[in-house]
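Appendix B, record 7
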Amino acid sequence: MKENGVKLDVVTYTTLMKALIRVDKFHKVPTVYEEMILSGCTPNRKARAMLRNRYQFDQVTEDAMANRLSSFSLDDNNFEAVKQLCCSIASKFDV
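Structure tokens (predicted):
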């Protein structure tokens, strides 16, 4: 968009950060946030929340996730759904 002369605003940057979070590209959110500030845009409440979400995601530990999941009781169908989700997430990492 910048190449076409379109000036990006805080709504555009916030939408981009939200899209990055939705496609599991959390690591790119701080770069977009910094670019927003450098371009002269003042981050609003939503933009700051996007950045916080990224950092909260990074701070979640495996133990915290296990403790949280242990408080739920799943039937076979729900367990299978959680297992598929975990496998999907794990497949995105180079292990």
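Remarks on this record: Residues 6 and 68 are 44 Å apart (CA to CA). The mean pLDDT is 80.
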